From TrEMBL:
<feature type="active site" description="Proton acceptor">
    <location>
        <position position="230"/>
    </location>
</feature>
<feature type="active site">
    <location>
        <position position="75"/>
    </location>
</feature>
<feature type="binding site">
    <location>
        <begin position="76"/>
        <end position="77"/>
    </location>
    <ligand>
        <name>substrate</name>
    </ligand>
</feature>
<feature type="binding site">
    <location>
        <position position="203"/>
    </location>
    <ligand>
        <name>substrate</name>
    </ligand>
</feature>
<keyword id="KW-0457">Lysine biosynthesis</keyword>
<dbReference type="InterPro" id="IPR018510">
    <property type="entry name" value="DAP_epimerase_AS"/>
</dbReference>
<feature type="site" description="Could be important to modulate the pK values of the two catalytic cysteine residues">
    <location>
        <position position="172"/>
    </location>
</feature>
<protein>
    <recommendedName>
        <fullName>Diaminopimelate epimerase</fullName>
        <ecNumber>5.1.1.7</ecNumber>
    </recommendedName>
</protein>
<keyword id="KW-0028">Amino-acid biosynthesis</keyword>
<feature type="binding site">
    <location>
        <begin position="221"/>
        <end position="222"/>
    </location>
    <ligand>
        <name>substrate</name>
    </ligand>
</feature>
<comment type="pathway">
    <text>Amino-acid biosynthesis; L-lysine biosynthesis via DAP pathway; DL-2,6-diaminopimelate from LL-2,6-diaminopimelate: step 1/1.</text>
</comment>
<dbReference type="GO" id="GO:0005829">
    <property type="term" value="C:cytosol"/>
</dbReference>
<dbReference type="InterPro" id="IPR001653">
    <property type="entry name" value="DAP_epimerase_DapF"/>
</dbReference>
<feature type="binding site">
    <location>
        <position position="170"/>
    </location>
    <ligand>
        <name>substrate</name>
    </ligand>
</feature>
<feature type="active site" description="Proton donor">
    <location>
        <position position="75"/>
    </location>
</feature>
<keyword id="KW-0963">Cytoplasm</keyword>
<dbReference type="GO" id="GO:0009089">
    <property type="term" value="P:lysine biosynthetic process via diaminopimelate"/>
</dbReference>
Amino acid sequence: MRIRFTKMQGAGNDFVVLDETRQRLDLSPAQYRWLADRHFGVGADQVLSVRPSPAAGVDFEYVIHNADGGEVEQCGNGARCFARYVRDSGLTSRDTVRVKTLSGVIEPCLNADGRVTVDMGPPVFDLPSVPFDAAGLSPHADGGWQKWHLALATSAGSPIVPVAVLSMGNPHAVQEVEDVDTAPVLTQGPLIETHSRFPKRVNAGFLQMVGRSHVRLRVWERGAGETLACGTGACAAVVAGIRLGRLDSRVDVQTRGGLLTIEWAGGDAPVFMTGPAVTVFEGEIEIPEQP
Ligand SMILES: N[C@@H](CCC[C@H](N)C(=O)O)C(=O)O
């Protein structure tokens, strides 16, 4: 099957975007994995499919597959690229669209300066909903909130890693580090991602506080490995920092691929994420039936 695609990136988190508004492609997990493969396919952290929404008052359905082929609930940088894509390809003339994801409806809005702001909805702290299995564990109070101590089994010992646990529609474990440049992202990331306390696996954030309104962040993403930026990871890290009492309500997040600005007023308020969304190129590719 030969398909058209658009390659996009948001703060260096890159995507293959597929227009399924006229025809469903019905790709298999192996085909999504192949498209995301940087050697045999197009190459991307996630594949985003744009579909029409059957729900009233919702403009589109937004389906997200990680580079490993698994479907996931939410993707922040992808949401910004999604909004840029539907506008630039003429699928809508609106600056603000309502988009259904696996974890609910989000609202991206194109700004006059070219960046995109997304209402990502409120963070979720209910542990079974993350999901996080806290059975037999006690939380450790920290600032105004709490952290959970995860035991990791490494070849060099069993470090205990304190993490804040929450969902932005998808699961996140956020730990504070002195310096993101020397943080053990590549060694601890995969161990946290697959830790048995997270039945659906987890995205592992490494957060360096620079000031009350400025942080640095690296994220080992579930199903994709370390990416240059993770939008939901930035939302989760800032929400955790605010709840811990260390950050103000508007924070600039420096990732390896660009700057994201996150705002959260606390409680049940939605999290707003602002950042870039850029089209890189368009193309056509023949997808093998059984890669
Ligand atoms: N890149 C994303 C998150 C994509 C999904 C994530 N890897 C997961 O499995 O939950 C973002 O910008 O939020």
